[in-house]
Description:
7-stranded parallel beta sheet
Amino acid sequence: MRLDGKVALITGGGTGIGTAIAKRYVAEGAKVCITGRRKEMLDEVAQSLPAGMVATCSGDVTKYEDALRMVDTTLTFGGRLDVLVNNAGIDPGGTVADIDPEVWRQVIDVNLTGPFLVMKASIPQMIKGGGGSIVNISSLGGLRCLPGMASYCTSKAGLIMLTQQAALDYGPVKIRCNVVCPGATRTKMLENALSPLSEVLHTDVDGVFACISSNVPLRRVATPDEISGLCVYLASDESSFMTGSVLLLDGGAAIVDVSGASLTSAGVNWGV
């Protein structure tokens, strides 16, 4: 019960990592308000959890009026706001020359401006409550480039800097802000993004996941539950002296030299 008595707002709480965080937070004693654009998904998650522990608020994080409504719903439900998890995100592909400018704007709006707007709405309430913890969900793609993912990687890199800026500015009023950078995680969003590759690789989606994790030290992708545990720590008082941190949760992917890994995949050991 590390979050007993705390109240959290989780964006993108109807699917994937957001749902896993919501379930783990409730298991640890927190009340949560989950938000997203699809009400039916939010209702399904809420119905799977104990009554009285979950509120829902459908809305779009790119609209400030919706962000304010999300915060108001959380305050009405729980009476305070201790934790904000910015998890909502999208991942359309495209290189700089190929991506449609409107798609670029949409990705930046959801993945970067959205967290800014929800933080802008949340921080004054956290200050009134004596402090709080903000957990932003970025990506390994915010630290390492992915081929053909210009808007996604740029938005996630920006979220890392936004996190650290907020940590600097609001540390004096006892608001902590940290960012989690998951590697490949088996969510419906990633499955949908990778499914077209199954035909190219002549395999199924499981085979695609095996392929993309073949050079990761742990040789697999993460599950959403494996991301949620770190988010509990960041929301809890156990991390009371941690702010501005960029936390990789990637199975070791970021430590790999891609040149050497390519040789290993080809059956040749570096230096032999």
